[in-house]
Write a structure and sequence with these properties.
Mean pLDDT: 96
Number of helices: 5
Number of domains: 2
CATH architecture of the largest domain: Roll
Structural class: alpha+beta
Strand order of the largest sheet: 2-1-5-3-4
CATH topology of the largest domain: Ubiquitin-like (UB roll)
Low-confidence stretches: none
Order of helices and strands: EEHEEEHHHH
Strand content: 15-25%
Helix content: 25-40%
CATH class of the largest domain: Alpha Beta
Length: 158
């Protein structure tokens, strides 16, 4: 018999109750148990950044975080970035304006990382942006547009 644990997760300003196996990752809880599929499963080994979400405002790789570790903390996914009235977050708007995506698979993780690094005050120069975003890979090579979008959003937020 498979053992499960009960979790109460606060995600995107809503509370979710679910029963999962103790080893279920936050990524799988989001995608498979809660239907929040904006967070992408890339390498599933913590190397590509596609699964980046915020836990209490800090970026984490959801594929390396157990769902149980997020209990009692605020989780924000790409679905939770826009305002309640549907206005895009400044980083989302900048990604659109700068055409900072091609296939779009990495975009949610890129945006979540960008929001966090801007909040950390680490998006002052293009070199700082590149360094801080190094954990998010883009197979299409849209890096120059991504840096431009992060720079634009950072200037808007300051």
């Amino acid at each position: 018999m498979t053992r499960t644990i009960h979790l109460s997760l606060d995600i995107n300003r809503s509370r979710y109750e679910l029963d999962v196996e103790p080893r279920v990752t936050l990524l799988d809880a989001l995608r498979e148990h809660l239907g929040l599929t904006g967070t992408k499963k890339g390498c599933d080994q913590g190397q590509c950044g596609a699964c980046t979400v915020h836990v209490d405002g800090k970026r984490v790789l959801a594929c390396l975080t157990l769902a149980a570790q997020a209990e009692g903390q605020q989780v924000t996914t790409i679905e939770g970035l826009s305002s309640d009235n549907g206005d895009l977050h400044p980083v989302q708007a900048a990604f659109l304006e700068q055409d900072a995506f091609q296939c779009g698979y990495c975009t949610p993780g890129q945006i979540m990382s960008a929001v966090a690094l801007i909040g950390e005050g680490r998006a002052m120069t293009d070199d700082e942006i590149r360094e801080a975003m190094a954990g998010n890979l883009c197979r299409c090579g849209a890096y120059n547009h991504i840096v431009a979008a992060v720079r634009q959003a950072s200037e808007m937020v300051r």
